[in-house]
């Protein structure tokens, strides 16, 4: 936990420090997550959640490529329904992606479409399961069953519209989210934000 806090503080400090530079592109983003587990034989439904965080665009001179590190809060997990019962697995992470963003330069300076991809590292901060069957319901902490870290890749596309931005992204976990058993995080996101 100390390493997680240190990593988040260092990245946040770097972003805030860089934002004082005249060429800095500090961004705030938030959006909707539709999460599920991949590489599992279980028949699951998506869990709806949200994501929010900070990004910093580090432009490469004379190039349409931008390196964009960030730090996000992301809700993941999935739902299972069957035989009159419903179970929701809620996994929440602090996620640190570092993506390469490629801008498509158009004649219209107010609109810049882009695509991006790169790795991410996630740190689990909450793991619980909620269940209900008829009039009975309850929840349990499953932190001992969930790995503390998650890593994978993220790909997406979007557009900068003046100082605003919109986009879609998909993050695919490359490691199992659980200590035992199968299930890798997979999240489709729709996000919007503003650059400073």
UniProtKB/TrEMBL annotation:
Residues 24-179 form the Outer membrane protein beta-barrel domain. The keyword Ligase does not apply. Keywords: Signal. Residues 1-24 form the signal peptide. SUPFAM superfamilies: OMPA-like (SSF56925). The keyword rRNA processing does not apply. This is PorT family protein. It comes from Fodinibius salsisoli.
